[in-house]
Amino acid sequence: MISSIPAPLAGRVAIITEASRGIGAAVAIDFARRGCSHIAITYLGNIDAAKKVLSSINEISSDIKTALIRADVTSEMFGQDVVKAALSSLAVNHIDIVVSNAALSDTKTLQSMETHTKEAFDQFMTANVWSPFQLSLAAIPHMGRGGRIITISSVASRRPNVNPMVILGATKAASDSITRALAAAYPRRTGITINSVAVGPTNADALRMGMAKLPKEWTEALYVRVTAERRIAEVDDVTGVVSWLAGPDSKWVNGNFVPCSGGSMLELQG
Predict the structure, then answer these.
(1) CA 124 to chain centre
(2) What span, in angstroms and rounded, lies between the C-alpha atoms of 47 and 223?
(3) Which one of 142, 179, 199, 240 is at 20 to 30 Å from 258 when CA atoms are compared?
(4) pLDDT of residue 154
(5) Rounded to whole angstroms, how far apart are CA atoms 201 and 207?
(6) pLDDT at 230 over 90
(7) What is the full DSSP assignment across 147-174?
(8) Residue 60 and residue 124: Cα distance in Å, rounded?
(9) Residues with Cβ < 8 Å from 86, sequence gap 6 or more?
């Protein structure tokens, strides 16, 4: 019997935004393991971390064509610029998979709803709603049948949030709504599926830095009550769901809000 390594994403061209760390980095590396031939990742501030991700990809296979794109999710042209740069840097004329992971969630920018400034509100809306929306619209003309668009969302989009998470949760809810609208508008003539993945607190740099600034009672409650297993997620808990949605077996999943939160939304699901 001849055995082979499954490669459900063999030959696919992927863009993963903010993949220099955390969930984005883990997704990019998992895509490489599953056979992607071209992978473009974006980063903003930490080029060394981004280069390390590309090095990990090339350790899996030196044949994988990679591209590193510096892009600011708060820029109005983020989506168009990323797609243009990916096509050029990877030397391809199409895109198969887009993972919108970049978002603004900086605890220094988060404010209470009573004192939230319009400037900060607009910045969050641009980064977390406008940019993934425009990224999808920019990518779709370059995607064929079987294309996949996956937006990394949050359980905060369905929960009544407390300060300082109110506006962040609102932006994620708005992005989920746009994901459903895109999923209703495009698949019939394009064969593209468009979904969002709702993650809960995940053991990555952004959470660790944010947790250090929160009151002790918040962090204790988070660890005790966050999931059915009473633990926060590891990045590998999320990557398998994203990679499955990116592959051929998910072809009949479209317009969905896919919980990947370890049961932390059980009270909302009934």
Answers:
(1) 16
(2) 31
(3) 142
(4) 84
(5) 7
(6) no
(7) -EEEEEEEGGGTS---TTSHHHHHHHHH
(8) 36
(9) 15, 40, 67, 69, 92, 95
Token pair for residue 141?
């003309």
Rounded Cα distance, 133 and 176, in Å: 10
Token pair belonging to 255:
């317009």
Q: What is the pTM of this model?
A: 0.86
Cβ proximity of 98 and 135 under 8 Å: yes
Query: Per DSSP, what are the bridge partners of residue 179?
Result: none
CB 14 within 8 A of CB 96: yes
The residue type found at 115 is T
Q: Measured in Å, how far apart are the chain's first and last C-alpha atoms?
A: 47
CB-based contact 66:39 (threshold 8 Å): yes
- Distance CA(148)–CA(203), nearest Å, equals 26
pLDDT tens, 109-127? Answer: 666 666 778 888 888 899 9
| Confidence band, pLDDT 50/70/90 cuts, at residue 1 | very low
58, 66 contact by CB (below 8 A): yes
Closest CA relative to residue 195, chosen from 228, 241, 231, 159 = 241
Domains, in order of start, for the chain? 13-201+235-261 (3.40.50.720)
Axis-axis angle for helices 22-33, 235-246 (nearest 10): 50
The alpha carbon of 189 is separated from its chain's Cα centroid by a whole number of angstroms, namely 25
pLDDT, residue 263, reads 62
- 49/95 Cα distance (integer angstroms): 24
What's the average model confidence in pLDDT over 217-233? 56
